[in-house]
């Protein structure tokens, strides 16, 4: 299948590259099928999550470890079942990146990570009302 993305041109998507969000993404509930790819010539550090259902919708996503952030996410039985996740070690966690107009730096949305099951090609967005984390600074003497 082909997607005519205004940002990335015509993209060829094979069925095995489709990622389904069974409940959509908050604010984009009707966009449930996405393709994941690297933009040509871009750093391999981030991916594009391009909607198949709405070609105007695309997100930059990345591994939160690139920002020194790590999650311990507990999914409910219903959430795990929605993405056919039976082993937590199979889950991939990604964060959506954004850039304000006129800014050069990308920002990561740590309060709403994506949880992907690469085996079933299903995913969900886990939205936290409040993150419970501590920031620890290491001195250069250590």
UniProtKB/TrEMBL annotation:
Family named by the database record: Belongs to the FliW family.
PANTHER family noted in UniProt: FLAGELLAR ASSEMBLY FACTOR FLIW
Signal peptide: none
Protein name: Flagellar assembly factor FliW
InterPro entries for the chain: Flagellar_assembly_factor_FliW, Flagellar_assmbl_FliW_dom_sf
General function of this protein: Acts as an anti-CsrA protein, binds CsrA and prevents it from repressing translation of its target genes, one of which is flagellin. Binds to flagellin and participates in the assembly of the flagellum.
Subunit organization: Interacts with translational regulator CsrA and flagellin(s).
Compartment annotation: Cytoplasm
Gene3D superfamilies assigned: BH3618-like
Keywords: Bacterial flagellum biogenesis, Cell projection, Chaperone, Cilium, Cytoplasm, Flagellum, Translation regulation
